[in-house]
Amino acid sequence: MNRNLLICGLFICLCACKSGKKTVEQPRTVSVEGTDISKRPVATEAWPIEDDKKTKKSEKSAANPIIETALSYIGTRYKYGGTTKRGMDCSGLIYVSFLEHNIPLQRVSYRMATQGKKIKLKEVQKGDLLFFKTGRKNRINHVGLVVDVKGKDIRFIHATTSRGVLISSLKEGYWDHAFSEARKIL
User: Fold this and answer.
1) Catalytic: 15?
2) Percent of the chain surpassing pLDDT 90
3) Is 13 assigned a catalytic role?
4) In the chain, fewer beta carbons within 10 Å around the N or the C end?
5) pTM for this structure?
6) pLDDT digits (tens, 9 = 90+) for 18-57
7) Do the beta carbons of residue 63 and residue 126 sit within 8 Å?
8) Which residue among the candidates 8, 13, 158, 177 is catalytic per the annotation?
9) Which residue in the list 13, 15, 142, 177 is annotated as catalytic?
10) Angstrom distance (rounded) from CA 168 to CA 171
11) Which of 82, 45, 53, 34 minimizes the C-alpha distance to 172?
């Protein structure tokens, strides 16, 4: 009986960053500041990340290296509490990507959601964080890093228990429904 409770509790804990929607794995070319990363799993069909020439120079210099670090983890399997290429969870991905560029953040998503400045979704830019409530407790338990914004289409990198580190769109029903808030860190 205790073993079954332990297994059930562990399953619930691991589902905190789970996407209810399957992704389509197709080879794509992702370009950030001239760096190509090919054959990466992405959550929707057609979209290359390109530098937006209208982007402010200061945003480019701060956000792109962090995004590039996060992109280097695409395809990494999910591991609760993980912060390495051997396994990564959603907040670990964001924590490591920012820390590598000397920007310390809290380690867990609900605490990250207290940092920076809360912004409206229409103000979101590359490098901002998106927070989600995917669990039953109605609290923030998932985070993603915005990698591209084209009009109302916001793409973000994150880690899910089912697919590991990948890029999704906020237009996807699951993520649109679970979205809680956006924050500017940079």
Assistant:
1) no
2) 63
3) no
4) N
5) 0.72
6) 444 333 333 333 444 433 433 344 444 334 444 444 444 4
7) yes
8) 158
9) 142
10) 9
11) 45
The string of DSSP letters for 138-186 reads: -S--EEEEEEEEETTEEEEEEEETTTEEEEEETTSHHHHHHEEEEEE--
Active-site residue (options: 13, 15, 90, 177): 90
SS (H, E, C) the chain: CHHHHHHHHHHHHHHHHCCCCCCECCCCEEEECCEEEECCCECCCCCCCCCCCCCCHHHHHHHHHHHHHHHCCCCCCECCCCEECCEECHHHHHHHHHHCCCCCCCCCHHHHCCCCEEECHHHCCCCCEEEECCCCCCCCCEEEEEEEEECCEEEEEEEECCCEEEEEECCCHHHHHHEEEEEECC
- Does residue 8 carry a catalytic annotation? no
Token readout for 3 is: 């073993």
What are the tens digits of pLDDT across the range 116-125? 999 999 999 9
Q: What domains, with CATH codes, occur in the chain?
A: 2-184 (3.90.1720.10)
